[in-house]
Amino acid sequence: MPLQGLHLYLFFFIIIIFFAIIPCYYCLQGDTLNHYLQEEDGYDSGAYPSYINSIEDGHFKVKIFDDKVGSISTSVHKVNVDDFKPNFDNNHDDDTEAFEKAWEEACSSEEGAVIVVPEKKYRLKPVRFSGPCKSNITVQIYGIIEASDDRSDYEEDERHWLVFDKVENLLVEGGGTIDGNGNIWWQNSCKVDKDLPCKDAPTALTFYRCQNLVVDNLTIQNAQQMHISFQRSKDVQVSNLNVTSPEHSPNTDGIHVTHTNNIQIANSSIGTGDDCISIVSGSQNVQAKNISCGPGHGISIGSLGSRHSKDYVSEVTIDGAEISGTTNGVRIKTWQGGSGIAKNIKFQNIEMHNVSNPIIINQYYCDHHKPCKEQKSAVKVKNVMYKNIKGTSATEVAIKFECSKAYPCQDILLQDVVLETEEAYQTAKALCNNVNLAELGLVLPQCPSLSSM
Ligand SMILES: *[C@@H]1O[C@H](CO)[C@@H](O)[C@H](O)[C@H]1NC(C)=O
Ligand SMILES: *[C@@H]1O[C@H](CO)[C@@H](O)[C@H](O)[C@H]1NC(C)=O
Ligand SMILES: *[C@@H]1O[C@H](CO)[C@@H](O)[C@H](O)[C@H]1NC(C)=O
Ligand SMILES: *[C@@H]1O[C@H](CO)[C@@H](O)[C@H](O)[C@H]1NC(C)=O
Ligand SMILES: *[C@@H]1O[C@H](CO)[C@@H](O)[C@H](O)[C@H]1NC(C)=O
Ligand SMILES: *[C@@H]1O[C@H](CO)[C@@H](O)[C@H](O)[C@H]1NC(C)=O
Predict the structure, then answer these.
(1) Confidence (pTM)
(2) Which residues are the active-site ones (predicted)?
(3) How many domains are contained in the chain?
(4) Which of 133, 136, 214 to mutate to test the pocket of ligand 1 (most atoms within 8 A of CB)?
């Protein structure tokens, strides 16, 4: 008898715990958009995720999916966005509702769904495709999706146009085009018109908190600001993308990676007005292969450490890239006064064509009008390898290591790096401050003296 009583108590105890946990779980899930906006600025003061510590130095493993995400063996539910357009559609200017309804139907389908965007032109205001969904989803974009260029449509959230939020097992493909129609935003950028206040413009395509994601065979062009951003996502494969915007378009990063773990970017061509690929804080296991980059600002890690932030990036491999006519080739940039580390980074098999700063580490990065003053702390830079990098520099200084006095760059290796100036009459130079450097094979130009430490 007393034993039965005990069971009963235990039972109620479990029930109580259960109901105590569930609402809390949902409150954690209910991250607000505001929270997410703040993160984008890189001010996120969140602690360095603990899993990063468990990664061994020098290992660059990226998980490759065995199966194609969204490949669904059994029946699939096909959802055509055209089916959600009103019958008598006088307003061809706005397909937002059709896309929202198609998503709703697909996302609530139990059997796996394919959303088809036929080979036509569509026009969308900002849309948020939210998960979690009941099953795997494939989005097949054959047509052209164009952004509304009425800036008042973005009043609610000025920083995003299309967002996939918290979707697992998502495949986006089809060979179609996503066009941010960014002209109006570029004209109103403070970088273009110095009299205007500096304001953010929308990222064309954002994947936020997605897991098991494949983005394949798409053109993303003329983004309002960044083209594609992977944020707080995990296990991502990106391939066959064509990312383009004019060279003069301001802040139009091609592919932006932030707080994302395990991402591979392959076989893609990127040419914009800013970084082809930018990898910022909280990102780990980032691999880019066979990338063609230019025009733009090159492939960047950073900036890190702005406004005293503590930033971490590790296990990054850029393997196979052709970089042409950009302001930088492969760059690591950090601000004075930050902390954290960028480590275990490989740049290899890269061809440079007329790049202004082919190889550059800058721990004194500053894009304010007045110079930033030197500070005691810095984001550390450690274990960076440059291997088999060839080609031409648009300037005399082909290799630039501007490392900080307080935290010199550690374990930097140059192996088989040969860079010449584009202009035959100049001789390429290396500028090397506060760097702990080793050289292997043929390295040209060489640092004036390796005793700069
Ligand atoms: C959904 O995708 C995952 C990952 O690719 C796969 O393992 C799973 O079998 C898929 N589910 C269905 C129902 O197809
Ligand atoms: C991209 O999509 C188009 C149209 O669906 C298709 O014809 C083409 O083969 C695809 N390309 C790749 C590289 O998958
Ligand atoms: C990429 O897109 C641009 C602009 O739409 C186009 O001109 C170019 O041919 C495309 N490149 C590839 C490789 O598909
Ligand atoms: C990249 O392209 C090559 C050659 O076409 C192909 O073998 C490889 O599988 C592609 N990689 C990805 C991730 O699509
Ligand atoms: C590299 O990517 C391009 C597409 O950008 C593709 O056509 C080519 O086959 C790829 N090459 C290799 C060796 O993977
Ligand atoms: C190389 O780049 C410089 C500076 O960007 C430019 O002025 C020059 O015309 C380019 N040269 C070639 C051959 O493309």
Answers:
(1) 0.86
(2) 297
(3) 1
(4) 136
| Phi, psi (rounded to 5 degrees) for 155 | -60, -35
Identify which ligand lies nearest to the alpha carbon of 217.
Answer: 2
Q: Which atom of ligand 4 is nearest to the CA of 240?
A: 14
Query: Is the residue at 340 inside a domain?
Result: yes
The pLDDT score that the predictor gives to residue 296 is 98
**Kind and range of the H or E element at 353?**
strand 339-355
Residues spanned by the domain of 352: 170-367+374-444
* Cβ contact 147:179 at 8 Å: yes
User: Which residue is associated with the tokens 């709703």?
Assistant: 104
Name the token pair of 38: 């703040």
Looking from the CA of residue 112, the nearest atom of ligand 1 is 13
pLDDT recorded at residue 450: 54
Half-sphere exposure of 99 (CA within 13 A, CB side): 24
380 and 345 Cβ atoms separated by less than 8 Å: no
CA of residue 289 to ligand 5 center, whole Å = 9
Q: How confident is the model at residue 14 (pLDDT cuts 50, 70, 90)?
A: very low
- Measured from CB, residues less than 6 Å from any atom of ligand 3 are 219, 221, 242, 244, 269
For ligand 1, what atom is nearest to the CA of residue 72?
A: 14
Q: Sorting pLDDT into bands at 50, 70 and 90, what band is 23?
A: very low
What are the structure tokens assigned to 402, written together? 């501007």
CATH number at residue 227: 2.160.20.10
pLDDT digits (tens, 9 = 90+) for 348-404: 999 999 999 999 999 999 987 778 888 999 999 999 999 999 999 999 999 999 999
Residue nearest to atom 6 of ligand 1 (CA): 69
pLDDT digits (tens, 9 = 90+) for 290-344: 999 999 999 999 999 999 999 999 999 999 999 999 999 999 999 999 999 999 9
Distance 50 CA to ligand 1 centre (A): 28
133 inside domain? no
Give the distance (Å) from ligand 3 centre to CA of residue 242: 6
User: With the C-alpha atoms ordered 155, 158, 163, 165, is the resulting torsion angle positive or negative?
Assistant: negative
| Residue 237 maps to a domain | yes
> Is residue 57 included in any domain, yes or no?
no
* 268 pocket-lining for ligand 5 (C-beta < 6 Å): yes
Active site residue 227: no
Separation of 266 CA from ligand 4 center, angstroms? Answer: 7
Query: What is the rounded CA–CA span in Å between residue 306 and residue 382?
Result: 18
